[in-house]
Amino acid sequence: MNTSISATETPTAKTVKVTANALIVELRDGRTVSVPISWYPRLAQGTASERRRWELIGPGIGIHWPELDEDISVEALLFGLASNESPASLRRWRAFRRRSANKRIEPTRSRSKKRAAHS
């Protein structure tokens, strides 16, 4: 009788792609997992540039987006689990992003104006 060998190896990510509509993860065992990006609000609200900057966690048990402070495990993807971030946490993250964006675009006073202000 032929039986398939039970998989005991932990599935790990090999490559990651985030499109406008989906998170697509290629696993080292050859499978590809694709889920709607709407499952992960931080990815959905991130810029294309932020989405491209990901790194594997450990040997690939998860994916981390440093600029979005987002971590997604391969196991969660395989189980079809969307983000379980609380609405309060997501609101705080959005507020932090708005504050950070405002700091980047605020004009800074030139040195001559600073000296004149302190004279």
Number of helical stretches of at least 4 residues: 5
What is the domain tally? 1
Distance between the termini: 92 Å
Which percent band covers the strand fraction? 15-25%
Average pLDDT works out at 87
The class by helix and strand makeup works out as alpha+beta
Number of strands: 6
Superfamily (CATH H level) name: Uncharacterised protein PF10387, DUF2442
Question: Which CATH architecture is right?
Answer: 2-Layer Sandwich
Unreliable segments of 5+ consecutive residues: none
H and E order: EEEHHEEEHHH
Textual characterization of the structure:
- This protein has one domain: NE0471 N-terminal domain-like.
- It is 36% helix and 24% strand.
- It has five helices and six strands; from the N terminus they run βββααβββααα.
- A hairpin with a 4-residue loop joins β5 (62-65) and β6.
- The strands form two sheets. It has a three-stranded antiparallel sheet. A three-stranded antiparallel sheet has the order 4-5-6.
- The termini are far apart.
- It is elongated, with a radius of gyration of 21 Å.
- The mean pLDDT is 87.
- With 119 residues, the protein is an alpha+beta fold.
